[in-house]
Amino acid sequence: MESARNREILRAMSQENVEIVTRAISAAIARPKPDYSTVNELYAPDHVLVPVGAASGIEGEGKGAEGFRAWRREIEEFLSAELVVTVRGGQVVRTEAFMEPVRALRAAAGLSE
Fold this sequence. Notes:
Number of helices: 6
Number of strands: 4
Shape: globular
CATH class: Alpha Beta
Strand content: 15-25%
Helix content: 40-55%
Radius of gyration: 14 Å
CATH topology: Nuclear Transport Factor 2, Chain: A
CATH architecture: Roll
Mean pLDDT: 79
Number of domains: 1
Structural class: alpha+beta
């Protein structure tokens, strides 16, 4: 049952959105510094970043450029997380990080805990 739902979620993502997310994340984590031109193109100015600890109340959401800078400081933890990314109008508007894959899938499906 769970794997059927996972396939449903993946089918719902358009190839265009997958490409946007891939380009956006690659630009944001580029070393030694981010590709700011691509970041500014693909992330909405009011992009909301929900870090791993937000659900537990440990961390709050980050918004806009300052949220991005804070995220860069915490990047190693973020990269080991499962991400749920929302794309609207060709831009990433929200990124949520989860340590447990099942929680990420529930969030992607719009299901509550």
